[in-house]
Specification:
The structure is a single chain. By secondary structure, the protein is an alpha/beta fold. It has helices at about 1-20, 35, 50-65, 65-75, 85-90, 120-125, 135-155, 175-185, 210-220, 225, 255-265, 305-315, 330-335, 340-345, 350-355, 365-375, 380-390, 400-410, 415-425, 430-435, 445-450, and strands at about 40, 45-50, 165-170, 190-195, 230-235, 270, 285-290, 295-300, 355-360, 395, 440-445, 455-460, 465, 480-485, 485-490, 495-500, 505. The chain folds into 3 domains: about 1-95, no CATH class; about 115-360, 3-Layer(aba) Sandwich (Rossmann fold); about 365-465, Helicase, Ruva Protein, domain 3, CATH 1.10.8.60. Helices cover about 40% and strands about 15% of the residues. The strands form 6 sheets. The protein has a 5-stranded parallel β-sheet with strand order 4-5-8-3-9, sandwiched between helices. Strand 16 (about 495-500) and strand 17 form a beta hairpin. Helix 6 packs across helix 7 (about 135-155), helix 16 crosses helix 18 (about 400-410) and helix 18 (about 400-410) crosses helix 19. The protein is globular.
Amino acid sequence: MRQNGEKMSENNDTINNQEEEYEKICYICRRPESKAGKMIAMPGNVYVCQDCLQKTFDTINNSGMNYDDMMKMSGMPNMGMFGNMNYQDMDIPENQKIKKKKKVKKPEEKLDLRNIPAPHEIKHMLDEYVVGQDYAKKVMSVAVYNHYKRVAAGDQADVEIEKSNMLMIGPTGSGKTYLVKTLARLLQVPLAIADATSLTEAGYIGDDIESVVSKLLAAADNDVERAEHGIIFIDEIDKIAKKKETRSRDVSGESVQQGMLKLLEGSDVEVPVGATSKNAMVPQVTVSTKNILFICGGAFEGIDKIIEKRIDQKSIGFNAEIAEKHEDDVDKLLAQVLPQDLVKFGLIPEFIGRVPVNVSLNPLDQDALVRILKEPKSALVKQYQRLFEMDGVKLTFDDDALIAIAKKALERKTGARGLRAIVEQVIMDLMYEIPSQTDVTECLITKGVVEGTEDPQIGCSDQKVKATVPKKRVKTSNHEIEHSGVKVKAAVPKKRVKTSNHGEIA
């Protein structure tokens, strides 16, 4: 008896271990627990998801069949309907079982509101990752510092402090998104990035305005308390400017601005957990946006013309100086942006009033792009050098090569975003060939390599430097022999001609 009991306990332990190791799978729809949700256990270790069970009950109800009649027809008395089933046939095959994903405990990343970094400390941290944009980094550091001081003060302050939401104006590739990402990572707060172009008024095709809060909640691992101290970055905010001369309902422009007002100011929002749209089957939680920092960014193409027109209007009259053209001073014009310029661009005054901190980013010049390539901690050149080091190869870019890459990026007018594509194109052949060549120790990228006039210089283990020249096929009329990439003629034996009188002539 004791042996039988021990065997039964061992079998139970084995079953429990398997249940912990493998996911429960619905017997009807074959979906795992991670997709179908909580399972309902049936006799014989059979599991059914709630959706399939509900569909089964609905089918029975719609058929008009009585439960008692169904039990009698099947010969199954009352609730013993599973008693005669062969559970071995119902078990999930081994090859269909799914192992549970092991949950890795992440270190808790919480911002200590009592030890908020000073503005100069925040800027110093940003300097290690972001090149240039000193004024923008200074404004952001002060705004973030004041915001989290406001959060730390809470409702105990005698004077109510308003939120320091920001509006970032700058051309594409100037570093708006990268600044916000770096800031959130350094402060160890959750970050959600949303595209304003995907937002529409509630009831229309597209993402609801509250979906940005759902993304923040997901970034905080569904921790409401952490999410309420996070940062939401809404990019392409200029694309929801009020449409001019439109008679139809502006569901993706002015209406979105109107809907965002309550979020920016601070309100309690019902958002779904684990989804971006509200659904009856998805649980919802209440998230307060009172302490969430909103940062909006956009290129605002054409606003420099609005600013220029406003400035030039002041120089009208007999004694006025003729205003100069400001084509090359876009950064200076953006620094002079006023709320009235944003209203003319298409933003509603109520929206502008809820983003009191405005900061403009300068377009990146050649020197800034070269610095971006080599100076930051996660510089692009350092990333590729690290990739080559894993193959035992030292990758080097000379200064002229970096300047040539920066010039190409300026021609594309994509800012820092175009740098990676250019570098990837330059060293693509090397990244393809190097892993299979064990004798290569170093590679040198010159200006000619970037411009496509030279091949990279390759250093081998025998200290010889050579250029990678692909084999060329030389077509001839006679036989060919391949040697060191060049085809040469092969010697053809002379034919002997036989004559009738004088024998053979060579």
